[in-house]
Design brief:
The protein is globular and about 40 Å long. The chain has a single domain, classed as START domain (Alpha-D-Glucose-1,6-Bisphosphate, Chain A, domain 4), CATH 3.30.530.20. It has five helices and eight strands. The chain has helices at residues 25-33, 35-38, 133-141, 144-152, 155-159, and strands at 3-9, 14-21, 49-54, 61-67, 73-84, 88-96, 109-118, 121-129.
């Protein structure tokens, strides 16, 4: 499994995942930029994602849903707030209604993804920033920590295909 560490920091209001992959930074970047690749790993294996929209530019939007084992759908959105290709991007994200419109603004978060070369591979760090300890705890209780770990665990399989 590529996840080498997970850190929940209540004081800093962050949830951080660090994973390493046997691929170049540019290749790992494509896993975020290409919606067909992104939907193969975003979400745990039992809740696969479908991206209806991904405009990977500053101020660009993403609209997606994850489908559960019973057919239930959980919708989400992103707004990309910064890009430094191929090493870093930032985005706001949260829950959405069936049309992709943001709902429950108290549960939106800010994500920062960095990709750094490590030997012949890449270290990916994903940090989610929250507004309060209660929000962080609520998202962990909804399965964010476990789900992201499982999601990241799918990336090696995608990278091995190329």
């Amino acid at each position: 499994m590529p996840v080498i560490s997970t850190d929940r920091d209540v004081e800093a209001l962050t949830l951080t995942f660090v994973a390493e992959f046997d691929a170049t930074v540019e290749r790992v970047w494509q896993l975020w930029k290409d919606p067909r690749q992104l939907e193969r790993w975003w979400g745990p294996p039992t809740w696969p994602a479908t991206f209806d929209e991904l405009d990977f530019v500053v101020d660009g939007k993403a609209r997606y849903y994850m489908t559960g084992p019973g057919g239930d759908r959980a919708h989400g959105w992103w707004t990309i707030t910064a890009i430094d290709e191929p090493s870093r991007f930032e985005f706001d994200d949260g829950f959405a209604d069936a049309d992709g419109n943001p709902v429950t603004p108290i549960d939106s978060a800010h994500g920062v993804v960095t990709l750094d070369p490590v030997g012949d591979g890449t270290r990916m760090t994903v940090v989610s920033y929250f507004d309060s300890p209660e929000q962080l705890e609520r998202m962990v209780n909804l399965g964010m920590e476990e789900g992201m770990g499982l999601a990241l665990g799918q990336i090696d399989g995608i990278l091995s295909e190329v």
